[in-house]
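help with this record:
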Amino acid sequence: MSTRKLIMWALFCGVLILGAGVFKLWQTTGDGAQVQLLQLGESAVLGDMTVSVNAVSKNASQTLVEVSMQGVEGADATAGWRMLVGGVISEAQPLTEGSGTPCATTKLAEPILCTVAFPVSEGTPTIAYIRAGQQEQWATTP
């Protein structure tokens, strides 16, 4: 193959790659890219689990999140919870004694109400729950 043909094919491939990048950029800036924040008390269904964040409070050592969960028998109720505040994502930690109802396992037929604990933080947290490849987020008030 001649050098001229190789250069033409390289330019053609470059234009295709550029077109694919522009298309992907267009996709991610559309309506589908908006993040929906649920309000406290609103429920979400992720896979086979129905969850809601009912309240958020802070004490001297932890940020406490009261949640309601139902839909799976025997699942770890603290797994999948995250807190975003100040650009830092925190995972659930053990609840200090007397701070609320500890989360154990979920139930299929009845909702459990419990408290998920996170490290104490400054700022307004956003609480997220991840399950079955899906994520929902709850906005909290300062």
Observations:
- Residues 3-33 form one domain.
